[in-house]
Amino acid sequence: MTENLPLHVSLVAVPGTLAMPIAGLYEVLTAFPIVAQFHEGVPASPPFAVDIVGTARSTVAAGSGLPITIQRAVDEVEQTGIVIVPMMAVDEGWTTGCHPDLVAWMQRMHAQGAMLCSACTGLGLLAETGLLDGRQATTHWAFGPGFRQAFPNVELRVDEVLVTAGAREEFAMSGGAASWQDLVLYLIGRFVSPVAAQAVAKFELLERHAEGQAPYLPFLPQTQHGDGMVRGMQDWLETNFSVASPVAEMTGRSGLSPRAFERRFKRATGLSPIGYVQQVRIDAAKRRLEQTDLPIDQISWDVGYEDAAAFRRLFKRIARVSPGSYRRKFATDRPA
């Protein structure tokens, strides 16, 4: 897809934008002349023309305090091919209305055919355009609760590391802090070639998170729901998840019928009792895989599963990797 290149890319910077993602995106998108010296199939002529844009030409402080130079004001940019809003420092929630000029500019660019992208918490600014309502999106899992509260009409998929949306896939959003790598490789593969994307990944040592964010997600249950009985069952389960029949035990303790307990539990937590138990058990298994050398079959037993094969299947369904792969990826260094 190189016939319309170079393609103009606008990286959006505001005070608090993180330096690493915006610098990484800039460096990778402009690295083609160097990469082409070592890999065939990579154009030596830069396929992207990249600018850092903001409300005015100025220098803003990144979240770390490092300076970021805004090269062009958005009112100077009448047309662009791709807009990317990288990760920015945010509080627990998202405060709307802080950057109205940028939001209006992104709406205009989209109307003219530009692709709109975000990395990590940059999704908040993209969502303010209203263009993601009714669509799927992703961001860092820790930003999920605050994002959902601010933008309830966006279907958030924090288990995914890269989500595209729109009739012409004109929206692309990546999840965690390092997921700008997934986004930039997607853009190179789409607008240059898959061969070029692979070559850039190898040259820059960039990693695709093919399994999504699922392996990284801790289980963060909903507890501020106001149902004291359900909260009591959640607290009980924290130390009793490995008992033989935890759902039956909780139902008996509640004094409700099984059907009534299931409805009430799901209304409060968003999960069925058995689904909640599975999440708690797999989260406990993750900690054991990270911190101990226990055999996987032993961990299966310790968290409540006598059938190790069934445990492995459940673990992979929830974490998207096998227990062994998870241990290799996340095991902490321990002295010999």
Automatic annotation (TrEMBL):
<dbReference type="GO" id="GO:0043565">
    <property type="term" value="F:sequence-specific DNA binding"/>
</dbReference>
<dbReference type="InterPro" id="IPR018060">
    <property type="entry name" value="HTH_AraC"/>
</dbReference>
<dbReference type="InterPro" id="IPR002818">
    <property type="entry name" value="DJ-1/PfpI"/>
</dbReference>
<protein>
    <submittedName>
        <fullName>Transcriptional regulator GlxA family, contains an amidase domain and an AraC-type DNA-binding HTH domain</fullName>
    </submittedName>
</protein>
<dbReference type="InterPro" id="IPR052158">
    <property type="entry name" value="INH-QAR"/>
</dbReference>
<dbReference type="InterPro" id="IPR018062">
    <property type="entry name" value="HTH_AraC-typ_CS"/>
</dbReference>
<keyword id="KW-0805">Transcription regulation</keyword>
<dbReference type="Pfam" id="PF01965">
    <property type="entry name" value="DJ-1_PfpI"/>
</dbReference>
<dbReference type="Pfam" id="PF12833">
    <property type="entry name" value="HTH_18"/>
</dbReference>
<dbReference type="InterPro" id="IPR009057">
    <property type="entry name" value="Homeodomain-like_sf"/>
</dbReference>
<dbReference type="GO" id="GO:0003700">
    <property type="term" value="F:DNA-binding transcription factor activity"/>
</dbReference>
<dbReference type="InterPro" id="IPR029062">
    <property type="entry name" value="Class_I_gatase-like"/>
</dbReference>
<keyword id="KW-0804">Transcription</keyword>
<feature type="domain" description="HTH araC/xylS-type">
    <location>
        <begin position="231"/>
        <end position="329"/>
    </location>
</feature>
<keyword id="KW-0238">DNA-binding</keyword>
